[in-house]
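ok trying again, last paste got cut off:
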Amino acid sequence: MDLLKGILSSYYTKADLILPDDFPLREFAFQTYKEGVYVRHLSFNSLAVLRDYLIKKTPRQAYYSSALYRDPAAERMEDKGWLGSELLFDIDADHIKGCDKIELKINGKVIALIKPSCIELAKEHELRLLDILKNDFGFSQSEIKIQFSGNRGFHTIVRPKDKEWLLLEPHHRREIVDYIKGIGLSVERLLPRIKNVKFSLDDVNGGWLRRFKKFGEVDEYLIDQLVVEIDEQVTQDISRLIRIPGSINGKLGLPALILNGESDLIRFKYDADLSPFNLDYAIVRLKYDLPKKLEFLGEEYILGLKGDNVKVPLHLAVFLALNDIAEIVKIM
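nice, full thing came through this time. structure:
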């Protein structure tokens, strides 16, 4: 009996899955449980049907498209009938300078884990992004959705009230990326070129100069403290997939979660309380020799060697089983 599959199936019977109102116009995609291959070009007309699919198939990853289509189930992209795409931003903690990630080397592959301190860095960058989206681009809180990815960072989805934003092509979205990341930014070009012109940051209300305002000066060395480490490819891609809020991230075993604005983001803690499996324990049989101590979600655990049966919290057991490091043999 596959206990991991049973755990995931049971979770989806009551999971708080959150979909946009226009989800029938979205393409859905899943990574299969056993083979790990991706199944795309699916559509659903009700949450109940989607939930039934998740309960029966227990995919490792579950997504819907940032794009809207007339026929989302069409197999060829050119036949789907693109209607526009939301603005999507992805911040991964391990891509931020200063993140001290953990590399778990198992059977020739490397599994990356991050520490809570890395998520704190990602939160800083997310707050910078929200500031830019609201104060430079003029989006309201109601147009912005923040989501913890269930693994190592945050997704930000902007659904503008002005539909023209949805029709931006990849090269337009590239310009947004460059602005947010400060790519090609020259401080000299930000300052007045006419001599003897009195300039004060107090008179600035927008753009990059507004960002410098918090430091009271404009200087190249400050740029690194103002840029946002977003994934460039994600924002440019008009057919990008978004993890379904409430679905389990098959890499770490945590659910993707919606955060309600900056206050939720500031309070967010990267720990075992995020897991829906944090109240139980399990016996796992290790498939490989593991480090004597493993740090997971901010806690240290003592594991063992190949073939050992070890009692661990269920949220750790789910992670080990999802990554084929151990088999769950008993839930306690």
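cool. DSSP finds ten helices and 17 strands in the chain. The longest helix spans residues 116-135.
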